[in-house]
Amino acid sequence: MNYDRILIRYGEISTKGRNRKKFVDKLRKSVRIALAPFPMIKIRAERDRMYVLVNGENVQEIIKSLKNIFGIQSLSPAIRVERDLEQMKEAALSLVRSLYKGGQTFKISPKRSDKSFELDTAGINHTFGGHILENIPGIKVDVKNPDINLKIEVLSEAIYMSCENILGAGGLPVGSSGKAMLMLSGGIDSPVAGYLTMKRGVEIEAVHFFSPPYTSERSKEKVIDLAKKLAEIFGSMKLHIVPFTAIQQSIKEQIPENYSMTTTRRFMLRITDEIRKKQEGLAIITGDNLGQVASQTLESMYAINDVTNTPILRPLLTMDKNDIIKIAKDIDTYDISIRPFEDCCTIFVPSSPKTKPKKEKVQHYESFFDFETLIQEAVQGTEVLTIRPDSKEQPSEFEGLF
Amino acid sequence: MIYFDNSATTRPYNEVLDSFVKVSSEFFGNPSSLHGLGMQAEKLLTQARTQVANLLAVKPTEIYFTSGGTESNNLAIKGTAMLHKNKGKHLILSSVEHPSVREAMEQLQRLGFDITYLPADQNGRVLVDDVKASIKKETILVSVMHVNNEVGTIQPIAEIGKLLKLYPTTLFHVDAVQAVGKVPLNLIENGVDLCSFSAHKFHGLKGTGALFIREGARLNPLLSGGNQEWKIRSGTENVAGAVAMAKALRMTMVKSELGIEKMKRVKSLLREGLSRIDDLTINTPPENSAPHILNFSIKGVKAEVLIHTLEQKGIYLSTTSACSSKKQLPSQTLLAMGVPDDLADSAFRISLSYGNTEDEAEKVLVAIEEGANQLRKVMK
């Protein structure tokens, strides 16, 4: 017998009380986007769980896609059976048989939500356990540590049977916690920061600073490729590309070298904040990690953060570099991040940046020049791209060659 | 024209040629160049690599483009030997390998490596037990082809791969040049570490191929230079060739299910027809052989003469492999199988592609019978 549906358990959503409906809707949307390559499936969202009706599509491939969706605690491929003891026995047997390998053990975990069902839990154990023992030679019962755990759920509308419980990605459905701007460089950290924030349900738009000709088209490609990876989570993502050359050149002329990096970061934050206002976001996410480089000392963060009181989320702040790299590898951004192209931060980096910049000093240096106009121009000139994941068919300039 | 020599080479698909011409003329940049033209070429190369990897169910970082089967085999064998010679200097190969494997090994033997030939049974197949018995502590590589190029025998790759999983310091190289599109092989599940491919055997272009190097397996480059292909294969990348190869592989894989069935039908018709011809022995085993190769000998008929007789009728097939037929040496594979010298000397190879038909097979059968009878009269 083949699985005909996949049961999705919500996890944290269940605790959200009155907001639950909104959460379930967001999750349903995520599921629909992720399963777009499977046109035959149907999604049925209920209060406590969601079902994906497989309708002949590939169950394993669907499970693979579902495992990456935030807001899913766990999932199980299952079959639906009518309330008919003979039918149920057959289904239970064929399900266990399809997984059984010589010498394995099993148990039955009944859940009887509908108390009007003719058998009680002991009766279910007895009836179906007995049927399986009779028909699969060599199989044994082990209630503590079974190889196969056959779950039989008796609900009022039907009976569901499943044997596997697959862990989901956890977290909250994307978009259920509002929107924030991610400052996306080309490095290892910022995509991970974006990913972790999305995991808590935040929808993100990325902002990248681009300084041609000091940085090349390839570094822009790299950021677009990173954005494509992040876009897999929500189906699409906006990427704002800010023209930054003029500002960087002015900083180089106006600001003492050891303070240039602090000012650069302040202006990036200013511009991101302006874009955030336009896009109605509520926070800014960075890949800052305490103490990694000069700009990431507490003194530095204090001087940079001075330009806004918008919440700055720094999900990597306390993490070790190795842990960040591990996540980057898990989400497939690491190999893109280590491509060797300059980004706007590395190319103008002063030889000895101040590790303990003073807020008052940087304010003083910036006061001699009208940066405000340049900042507004950069915001005006920002190019907005809608990035879709690679797997979705995109018109290619190489159409027909492959 | 009836072309029955597809193991020598195949005719490139027109679509493949179109891609090659278009990439060569419009996207001619060097992928290493910093400017936009270079970037376009790099993107094309990346897309070609990804497509090849997806079709072979491996990772893009495991595909290294080369100039073809011979280079891939040499790189796999000598590259492994050079890097791992301090772990051991023992190499194992089957006695029915292609010359690019055999000669590479023998060259290493002259440099002080120790090599062991696995015997083949009367069907040209190696036995897993022989592999097991040949492995020593110093064995760094086992090389066994997937499909033999001369008689079409399929080697027990899955079983050997399973065995070699027990020997983590021994790499497993498979020459899959003749297998692509004819006999599917899952590289990862079967524990293959290195695998050679050649595009012109599946309607791509000559001078293009690839080596699969499993993630974690390491070898030395043979060519020193600009460190392309992650330092494993220097030399400006053949972008147009790689794109053409990716397309040829896709088209081949798409057609393979129906194509294989069709080749099986043509082959069984040929086998049946040939078996009715006097003094004709079929050397290709009925079991465990690829759907596209049929090798046979006709007692008392000089192979070369019959090849030319058939050619006059527009029929193209070959004496054994194209590589050794010009040297007029008897087939190494047939000798290893224990076929007597005179029969090995008069061996023919028919090799099919998806485009060949049962109708063509009927015509070829008639032509072979007529030709053989005629020649026998003259030569007696």
Structure description:
The complex is a heterodimer of chains A (402) and B (380). Chain A has 402 residues and is α/β, with parallel strands linked by helices. Helix content of chain A is 40%, strand content 20%. In chain A, strand 13, helix 9 and strand 14 form a beta-alpha-beta unit. The longest helix of chain A is centred in the middle third of the chain and has 23 residues, at 257-279. Chain B is of the alpha/beta class. Helix content of chain B is 42%, strand content 14%. Chain A binds chain B through residues 216-218, 221, 335, 396-398, 400-402, and chain B through 19, 22-23, 34, 36, 39-40, 43-44, 47-48, 51, 61, 243, 246-247, 250.
Fold topology:
The complex is a heterodimer of chains A (402) and B (380).
Chain A (H helix, E strand, L loop, with lengths): L4 E5 L10 H15 L7 E4 L3 E5 L5 H8 L5 E10 L3 H15 L5 E8 L8 H15 L4 E2 L6 E7 L4 E4 L3 E5 L8 E5 L5 H11 L3 E8 L6 H18 L2 E7 L1 H10 L2 H23 L3 E3 L12 H8 L6 E2 L7 H10 L3 H4 L6 H4 L11 H8 L4 H10 L2 E5 L15
Parallel strand pairs in A: 5-6, 5-7, 10-11, 10-13, 11-12, 13-14
Antiparallel strand pairs in A: 1-3, 1-4, 2-3, 4-8, 4-9, 7-8, 12-15
Chain B lengths: L1 E2 L10 H13 L9 H20 L7 E4 L2 H16 L5 E5 L4 H12 L3 E5 L9 H7 L4 E5 L13 H8 L6 E5 L18 E5 L10 E5 L25 H37 L4 E3 L10 E6 L4 H10 L2 E2 L5 H4 L6 H5 L4 H5 L1 E5 L6 H22 L1
Helix pairs in contact in B: 1-7, 2-7, 3-4, 7-12, 8-12
Quote the average pLDDT of chain A: 88
Spans of chain B with pLDDT under 50 lasting ≥5 residues? none
Helix content of chain B: 40-55%
Query: What is the typical, i.e. mean, pLDDT of chain B?
Result: 94
- Strand proportion of chain A: 15-25%
Number of strands of chain B: 12
Detail the poorly predicted runs of chain A: none
Cα-atom radius of gyration of chain B: 21 Å
Helix content of chain A: 25-40%
Number of helices of chain A: 14
